[in-house]
Design a protein that fits this description.
Strands 2, 5, 6, 8, 9 and 10 form a 6-stranded mixed sheet that branches. A two-stranded antiparallel ribbon has the order 1-4. By secondary structure, the protein is mainly β. The chain has no helices and 16 strands. It is rod-shaped, with a radius of gyration of 28 Å.
Length: 177
């Protein structure tokens, strides 16, 4: 009698996705391209989904994510989820830092104070250091005669206000970008 012997020999072992290299944090100048890359292994096909601040980025489904013309509003954590039929894995977060012009995130608020009270104006700014501040009175013009001498911080304090201090105050924030 003839005997048939059958032996299963897989060509490769099936494995869930694994990272060979994680995405790395990046610092780029405003307007430059930021490129995040991940290398992974596992039984194919592998699928990718990039995330920004833990939210899926529509259409970002490759091993490389390109943030074209990076802006300060795009700063933050980026990660990628890699999947195959055996499971999924999420990368560590890679942080994008954009060195760019200042972005005012909280404007100075209008104030009403009594005579003799202090008035504190403040501004909150996001942007690449070093940041320079210059407060001005009466309009947003850049003329030197509108500058308040020594007012070069994010807070302007008018100590013991008098009627002559009433007016419109603005701040110009700048940096090398």
């Amino acid at each position: 009698a003839d005997a048939v012997r059958w032996t299963y020999s897989p060509s490769q072992e099936e494995t869930p996705p694994q990272f060979i290299s994680q995405p790395q944090s990046l610092t780029v100048n405003q307007g430059d391209e930021a490129v995040f890359t991940v290398q992974s292994s596992g039984t194919g096909p592998l699928s990718y989904q990039w995330r920004y601040n833990a939210t899926d980025i529509p259409g970002a489904t490759a091993a490389t994510l390109v943030v074209a013309s990076a802006q300060p509003a795009q700063e933050g954590p980026y990660s990628v989820v890699v999947r195959n039929a055996l499971g999924s894995i999420t990368s560590d977060s890679a942080v994008l830092t954009v060195l760019g012009s200042p972005l005012i995130t909280a404007e100075p608020l209008s104030l009403t104070v009594g005579v003799g009270e202090d008035a504190d104006f403040s501004v909150t700014v996001k942007g690449a250091a070093p940041l320079a501040y210059q407060w001005r009175k009466e309009g947003a013009g850049l003329a030197d005669d509108n500058q308040i001498s020594g007012s070069t911080s994010p807070v302007l304090t008018i100590a013991a206000a008098v009627p002559g201090n009433a007016g419109v105050y603005t701040v110009v924030v700048s940096n090398p970008y």
